[in-house]
Design brief:
alpha+beta; binds zinc ion; Transposase_Zn_ribbon; Tnp_ISXO2-like; Nucleotidyltransferase, domain 5; 3-stranded antiparallel sheet
Length: about 375
Amino acid sequence: MTQHYLHSKESRNFARKINSLTNDEAEQWLASARWGATDKQGCPACGLFRKHYRRAKTRRWRCASCSREFSVTSGTPFHGRKLPFVDMIRLFAAFENGAKGQSLLEASRRVGCTPKTAQVFFGKIREWMVHAMDLCPLGGAFTVHMDGGYFGGKPRKPNRRARIPRRALEVRFGKKAPKNQNQPWIEAGMTYQNWCKRARKRVVISLCESAGHRMGSGRVMAFVCSGENEAEVTRLAKNFLSPDARVMTDESSAYSTLGALVAEHYTVSHANEFSTSEGVSDNMCETLFSRFRRSEYGTLHGFRPKYLQDYTCEFVWRENHRKHAQDKRFRILMIGMMTAPTSRWWAGYWQGRCRREEIGLDYFLARLPSTK
Ligand SMILES: [Zn+2]
């Protein structure tokens, strides 16, 4: 029997390397991720790539052409960092290692930094993941599964079990407007805290392309949408599904327009079965959402809507890279981060600056070359 990829030698030997790393070696790792070499550097100001004059005490280089000084993190998301290089490597490893995410407090205890340092560091990684998500249309040769999942805003269970009147349920789920607009939670039969929590609930719609028979998903993307409805599904299908795609969904009415937008559309009735005898299911989406939800409940303990898309992109990245050996996944992450531009959303976080707006599907559609 072939060995499972999680049990391979590469997967466990990496921890030894990280534990015995020195600060000089860590700097070399970062330099080789950024420039592909440890003996030559590219000046971030003028771009000259050669061996520059080294100032060993400050761990910086002086450019031979423009005389500006730079370090290995100048011009990257970690521009102006104070963390030692070895701690950066350990934070990368801690982040990449958590199949169901990485808790800030746990990372801070492991590395010896404050939770806020870990928060900003991980926030910058997620920012990169938002921009690194592959938006090329899915479909063609392989089946695509599509489904929506609700995240955030889980209400606390009531102390006593009681039958909820029909009208209260209708107000709760937005089917009827409350008479008293100032205190709608009373008519909905909820506490004020639970009413506020519900307002933080969002829907994430995921598209998962199969990697082949019994191989799970190959490429995944997921977006925070305004609702699981026809309008959002149409926008997703027009931009992220190729017209010849074969798509499988559940029987939700939101997917009723799909048949006209893609070549083949099959549905599975979740009231009866997860997968039909012909093999129609949306199980790849359920897998992604399962890991994401385990993380929400067990590791991260909830998301704010403002950062839900960032977390979604993190789990899309984890899903897409889940079959790589740990050192390979670590290297992909490190190269991606060290060749990314400075952070827009997290630079100046310590001085009180941060991203104010919630992002979702609209943010990605605006970034596409031409929105259909
Ligand atoms: Zn220069």
